Amino acid sequence: MSRRIVLIVTLTSMLGGAQAGVVDQSQEVFDGSLFVISPDWRIAQTFTAGLSGKLEQVDLHLTNVFDSELYPSTVSIVNVNGGVPNGALLGEAFTGPLVAGVNSVDFSSDSIYLTSGVQYGIVMTNDDPAHYSGPSTQWRSSITDVYAGGSIWSFSSTTGWVQSYEPEDPLFPIETYFDKDTVFTTHMAVPAPSSLLLVTCGSLLLLKKRRGARPSL
Length: 217
Known about the structure:
alpha+beta, single chain
């Protein structure tokens, strides 16, 4: 093998892993609805990956309508079984301090690999002891079903994962979650264009080198 081919193979190995983040799934509609995060219930948003690759970052639109300070929370990525976000934990990140608005949660150090067309869940929880006063975290959402790739779920120790809530007071209507979506964006890592070009050039030169070789007598 010539030095030229060796050099191309070496550079391809070094740069082939270079990656750039791209937006995959996104739901940006919020119109007054929100979900309070607390130790009493977890809130999840399921989504369907459009790309196969490594999850780099998740953006969540959070707020606190009771106070100016948000409560630190944990964001997890889980597998989904039959539409329910009760599968294996793929990765999690503790977020804090949080701000009112879009919060970016970094998963680049986790090896979370998603498959196109498969559903996953973004789960938020915390240990906020007084989630209706003072520091609190609420996840903004739509009041209609605007994202076809998933929906909202709620978990408590008494109900498990559900998509509706029936208040104890009959004067209040039953809340449904399957027709709502939280505000979120997922970012995936894909090979950078320069890396793809170098890999392609290296492969073509290797192929040309092999075709031009002649067996020795």
